[in-house]
Inverse folding.
């Protein structure tokens, strides 16, 4: 699953000949994209991430930084980049129609069902079929480390998520451990993705020092760069 020490890849996605992707460790920086010899002429597409359900469908290289939390494109040689430090980065590819997406799934975007909406947008705009979509969830804070309060549990319940995602913390009333990764995996299943097409790097960013964690390091955490691109 690992390529060198700088980013992690998914074998099923590596086998797609027209695809580049990865989930970066703390050592993988933006400047490192320029030294990848197999990516000549690629351009980087960033987001000003705002913990929303805003999705951008990229039909041409944007001249300014976009505000939102998801990118979708069918254009080759554009590197879609998501930055995280405990949130779940999700990379999607429709291997038949050659459509890709990169999604930043914090708890707010997850509550708004951002990932479901991305799959729906791929279906409606490009004719993607859920059976043809592969999804990869990158390193993020694990279910044993992500403590939230009652207001978060209520917000998810109001949006139809199961209470099973929240585990009460003994001796701490109205405090829960929340499985953010599973909340996003449920959305993919709800949209019709097969379990065999959903892949997950089950590494907790809070526990593993190779990855940035805001909960662990606060302002000193930095950001993890996850990326996906079409070569042709």
């Amino acid at each position: 699953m690992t390529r060198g020490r700088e980013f992690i890849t998914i074998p099923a996605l590596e086998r797609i000949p027209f695809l580049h992707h990865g989930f970066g460790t703390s050592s993988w920086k933006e400047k490192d994209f320029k030294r990848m010899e197999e990516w000549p002429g690629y351009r980087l597409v960033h987001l000003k991430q705002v913990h929303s359900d805003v999705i951008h469908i990229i039909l041409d290289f944007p001249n300014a930084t976009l505000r939102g939390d998801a990118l979708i494109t069918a254009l080759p040689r554009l590197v879609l980049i998501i930055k995280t430090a405990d949130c779940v980065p999700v990379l999607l590819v429709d291997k038949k129609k050659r459509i890709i997406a990169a999604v930043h799934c914090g708890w707010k975007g997850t509550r708004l069902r951002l990932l479901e909406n991305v799959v729906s947008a791929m279906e409606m705009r490009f004719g993607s079929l859920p059976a043809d979509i592969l999804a990869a969830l990158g390193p993020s804070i694990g279910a044993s480390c992500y403590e939230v309060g009652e207001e978060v549990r209520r917000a998810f319940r109001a949006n139809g998520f199961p209470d099973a995602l929240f585990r009460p913390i003994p001796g701490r009333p109205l405090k829960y451990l929340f499985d953010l990764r599973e909340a996003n995996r449920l959305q993919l299943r709800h949209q019709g993705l097969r379990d065999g097409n959903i892949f997950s790097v089950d590494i907790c960013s809070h526990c593993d020092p190779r990855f940035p964690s805001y909960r662990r390091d606060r302002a000193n955490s930095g950001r993890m760069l996850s990326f996906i691109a079409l070569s042709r």
